[in-house]
C-alpha cells in the first residue's frame, strides 16, 4: 500500500504511543521521587492516585500499540503484534527503569544520599 493516509495514520499512532510511554516513564520518576522523599500526611492518597494514573497510561500504551499493529497488519501480516509486545515489555519495565534512574540522579542532586 502506498496510500499517504496510511503512512500518516501510522505516524500519528506512533507519536501518541511515544507520548504515552513518556508519560508513563515520567509518572514512574514521580513515584520514585515520592517514595524517596519519605512520608507525608497525604502520601497514601497521592500514591493511590499515582498508581491509577500509571495504570491508565499503561493500558493506553497497550491499546495504542494494538491499534498500530492492526493498521500495520493491513500492509504486511508479518508485522502482527510487534508493537503490542513492545508495549508490554517497555510498559512493564518503565517503573523499575525510572526508579533506578531516580536513584542515580538523586546522588547528583543537592541533598542527595
Automatic annotation (TrEMBL):
Taxonomy, superkingdom: Bacteria
Ranges that cross the membrane: 12-29, 49-71, 83-102
Keywords recorded for this protein, A-Z: Membrane, Transmembrane, Transmembrane helix
Keyword presence, Membrane: yes
Name of this protein: Uncharacterized protein
Species the sequence originates in: Candidatus Nitrohelix vancouverensis
Organism lineage: Bacteria, Pseudomonadati, Nitrospinota/Tectimicrobiota group, Nitrospinota, Nitrospinia
